[in-house]
Amino acid sequence: MLLTVTTTHRPATxxxxxxxxxxxRIHSFDVPTGTAFVMYPEATDERCTAALLLDVDPQRLRxxxxxxxxxxxxxDRPYAASSLLASALAKVFRSALRGAxxxxxxxxxxxxxxxxxxxxxxxxxxLATRLFExxxxxxxxxxxxxxxxxxxxxxxxxxxxxxxxxxxxALNHLxxxxxxxxxxKHYWVAPDEIDKLLRSGAGWLAGHPEKVLIARxxxxxxxxxxxxxxxxxEGEEAEEPPAEEEAELPVVRKQSLAEQRRDAVLAAxxxxxxxxxxxxGCGGGALLAALLKDRRYTEIVGTDVSARALEIAARKLRLxxxxxxxxxxxxxxxxxxxxxxxxxxxxxxxxxxxVIEHVDPPRLPALEATVFGHAHPASVxxxxxNVEYNVNYEGLTGMRHSDHRFEWTRAEFAAWATRVASEYxxxxxxxxxxxxxxxTGSPTQLALFTTTPEVTA
Length: 457
What we know:
This protein has a seven-stranded antiparallel sheet with strand order 2-3-4-1-5-7-6. The chain is built from 15 helices and 14 strands. It folds into two domains: 2-188, 2-Layer Sandwich (c-terminal autoproteolytic domain of nucleoporin nup98), CATH 3.30.1610.20; 257-451, Rossmann fold (3-Layer(aba) Sandwich). The chain is α/β, with parallel strands linked by helices. The model is unreliable at 63-74 and 236-253 (pLDDT under 50). This is Small RNA 2'-O-methyltransferase.
């Protein structure tokens, strides 16, 4: 991933002094997720450009315990600007972020003519404009088209910012807003992230019209941390943020959507009379844990394309500590849902809980043929977000998760489910999950597919 900073200040090569990186050299730095390079494609008195190039090592990233879960072996993390680039920026340009320069201290507080470009950034052009324009930047955010034969625009933008700012202010804007635009962080977000946000947001965040969205996204949607940060921005006395995520939950609380979704799936499985169940795309094993607690399920199989996800599930379920009888009920298999797997045949039910939206639309027919055709369990339970409901989430732009390939309206989901049921010999019952809005429906939609009973003479 790449970021460039250009100035036409005279002499423009003073940029090297402010960044503490000599223009005549290529500088390299080891960072937790790969190697960062700083180089100068151009360095004259009239114009100077510094480029920060982050070469992400996918193997090193995949091996980090605090890294976000990679659901596919090929993804955009090494290429699209994100918190990975923000972290590299903080390490490589530490003095410039603080506004310190031993060689050019008189320039630290001077607004320089700057042009900043991030050629591949995950996020929307509309949100980039909302975030950077209030800070005085002229924003050019151009959506990057996907392959011409597919048509339409991708989820990425080519971002260019122009304006007169101190270099320190510009870098702090990027440090905070790159992960906000991507809406994902590659490391565990703890209470000390509040200090990072307030320090980098000093002088501009408190007056930003999108400060609530910025705090929530920067702090990974942890409500207690975001509330504490916003209180401190307003100068209010804030309670000490909890040390653990669980401390955010009050003793008596409303059931989360994830729990409501899980319970709806369990109710559908009970209705179907299933005892041998496949959890396809099981991820970290949240549904598997609930299935294990119910003795009616005599055989439970969790599958995922990611070996890492299966390792996490095994650890969370404590498979090595389960009694033998419990352990014999559960199997974890690595399997891709777009390829036939004979092991998946003969089960009472299969669950695709928040899975199909992670599949590229051109690959959906392969998933349908694998699950509904080749495996053909007696029942299939599918849940997926209802995109119409997204307007009820304050600050949400785009889709609910950075890895979603699509999100369907209720009509689109109904049309898909009806077609699949007809094609593969099922009937389907559509339901909503979660608190319904009168206009937009429920946040999650569920389909229970059951095989059409055979008529016998």
